[in-house]
Amino acid sequence: MAKRSLQRTVGVALGLAAAALLPAPAAAEIDFGVRGGFYDDADAGFLGAELLTDVTGRLFFNPNLEVVLVDDGTLATLNGDVHYDIPATGDLTFWLGGGPAVIFQEIDPPRNCRNCEGVDETDFGLNLLAGVGLERGGLRPYAQAKVILSDDTEAVLAVGLRFD
């Protein structure tokens, strides 16, 4: 039952993130991307998806969802990141940013433990991030380091690919 609650919460949060993009002007370009990497404290890899919208030419709104592949439950983050592209020459792009994070965590009780309870909680955090990307036509590979400041602070390394 708790897993359904988590899925419903993630679904509602994704819907709200998508709705936040609706008022954007018709001329605004919204790019899609995929990402993967590693959550250090959780000691697990993750897969994710993102949208990228140019706000001012150097400022970008980058909402994303990351699902961490933990063994003992479910861990997912919904992030409302914003980043600023640092002026550079050539094909490389550097950015710094941050934003709010909603952390959904469900930890299963240990097997064969009759009096143990699992954990089902939602936490809020703050992302601080830095990244580097390569501009190559319609495909833009990148690498990003992020720290999620919350009750359980997490360091995250990611690689991704954005599509124009």
Largest sheet: 8 strands, antiparallel, barrel
Describe the strand arrangement of the main beta sheet, using strand numbers. Answer: 1-2-3-4-5-6-7-8
Number of helices: 1
Between the first and last Cα atoms, what is the distance in angstroms?
A: 39 Å
Oligomer: single chain
Structural class: mainly beta
Number of DSSP E strands:
8
Overall mean pLDDT score?
86
CATH level 3 topology: Porin
SSE string, helices as H and strands as E: HEEEEEEEE
**So what's the CATH class?**
Mainly Beta
> Which architecture would the CATH scheme give at its second level?
Beta Barrel
Strand content: over 45%
Question: Can you offer a commentary on this structure?
Answer:
- The protein is mainly β.
- It has one domain (2-21, 31-163): Porin (Beta Barrel), CATH 2.40.160.
- It is 12% helix and 60% strand.
- It contains one helix and eight strands, in the order αββββββββ.
- An eight-stranded antiparallel β-barrel has the order 1-2-3-4-5-6-7-8.
- Strand 2 and strand 3 (59-68) form a beta hairpin.
- The longest helix is centred in the first third of the chain and has 20 residues, at 2-21.
- The chain is elongated.
- Residues 22-26 have low confidence and may be disordered.
Quick synopsis:
The chain has about 160 residues and is mostly beta strands.
